[in-house]
Amino acid sequence: MEEITQESSYKQAVFNSTVSILIRVDRLWKLAHQQCSHGQYEKWATTLDRLYIEFYADAKEIDIEEIRKLDVGIKNIGFHYNVETGKLKNIPELYKAIFQKEMFLKKLEQKQGRGLGYEDDIEDYMD
Questions:
Q1: Within 10 Å of residue 90's Cβ, how many Cβ atoms?
Q2: For the whole model, what pTM was predicted?
Q3: Residue-wise pLDDT tens digits, 102-114
């Protein structure tokens, strides 16, 4: 039986953690998409906040500042409901603000190397 070394245990733990993060992020993106599609704007915004938490540790200060600006924009628009219908009054402005945050988070995910979009140089595979 092969002896489990401390190094192999560490590598396995890193792998397991990475897979767990990928699954969690994938589920959050799917949830955000569903909430947006169903017009659940407050839930959508909250889910994007949860996604940001996943990216925060590796975020640069400029990215953190941009998220803060986007959050202020959403807060300034606010979630104002029609008392009679219970529906949001300011859907176009709110949608645009939350959508901008989602697009920024997608770009941040790519910039951090967490997304599927990457550039691969074919020459790296040629000998």
A1: 14
A2: 0.80
A3: 999 999 999 998 7
Q: Is the dihedral of CA 59, 62, 64, 67 positive or negative?
A: negative
The answer to whether 6 and 28 have CB atoms below 8 angstroms apart is no
Q: Scanning the structure block, which residue is given the tokens 């140089």?
A: 121
- Which residues lie across from 81 on neighbouring strands? 88
Residue 51: which residues within 8 A CB-CB, separation 6 or more?
25, 28, 29, 32, 105
Residue range 35-62: average pLDDT? 96
Give the model confidence (pLDDT) of 3-25 as tens digits: 668 888 888 887 888 888 889 99
Q: What is the mean pLDDT of residues 110-121?
A: 68
Please say whether the beta carbons of 44 and 98 come within 8 A.
yes
Q: How large is the greatest C-alpha to C-alpha distance in the chain, in angstroms?
A: 71
